[in-house]
Write a structure and sequence with these properties.
One of its GO terms (cellular component) is cell outer membrane. Its main location: other. It comes from Escherichia coli 1-250-04_S3_C1. It holds the Pfam family Chlam_PMP. By secondary structure, this protein is mostly beta strands. The longest helix is centred in the N-terminal third of the chain and has 7 residues. The strands form three sheets. Strands 1, 2, 3, 5, 6, 9, 10, 13 and 16 form a nine-stranded parallel β-sheet that branches. The protein has one domain.
């Protein structure tokens, strides 16, 4: 069983969603691993590594998609994108939410505590919270490197909270 704690400040963000996830004393109920890309119940996702493909995840009203407590010795603690990959996380209507919390990357390639995107990848995030993610290099929450063709969007983040994410900068070799 995995228990997830959210800071008290988040409770004021979207009360209707919080009420569907939490039990007494502000402790989260155990949530299952995610199944597929159409998230109908709150769940805890595994690390996503995409290369040249498209994934669109939709989070049902009142539900949470959680990427937390992942540790990796390479870039992208929770999500790694490369070679034109496209990754979208958004609510089905208006009240689904995604949380990236306490993800950590270390090692030689250690950028993007929560998300790393390179080589013309596209990242679209709506209604997300980034909290306590750590990168040994750059991008405590998100690291994006590279450009798309004219008119395309590399990174779009809408309605987000960034809190206590840390990037320690490169260590000389």
């Amino acid at each position: 069983m995995r228990v997830i704690f959210l800071r008290k400040e988040y409770l004021s963000l979207l009360p209707s969603m919080i009420a569907s996830l939490f039990s007494a004393n502000g402790v989260a109920a155990a949530i299952d691993l995610c199944q597929g890309y159409d998230i109908k119940a709150s769940c805890h996702a595994s690390r996503q590594s995409l290369s040249g493909i498209t994934q669109v995840w939709s989070i049902a009203d009142g539900q949470w998609l959680v990427f937390s407590d992942m540790t990796n010795n390479a870039s992208g603690g929770a999500v790694f994108l490369q070679q034109g990959a496209e990754f979208t996380l958004s609510p089905e209507n208006e009240t689904g939410m995604t949380l990236f919390a306490n993800n950590t990357v270390s090692g030689e390639y250690n950028n993007g505590g929560a998300i790393f995107a390179k080589e013309n990848s596209t990242l679209n995030l709506t209604d997300v919270i980034f909290s306590g993610n750590v990168a040994g290099g750059y991008g405590g929450a998100i690291y994006s490197s590279g450009t798309n063709d004219t008119g395309a969007i590399d990174l779009r983040v809408t309605n987000a909270v960034f809190r206590n994410n840390i990037a320690n900068g490169r260590v000389s070799q």
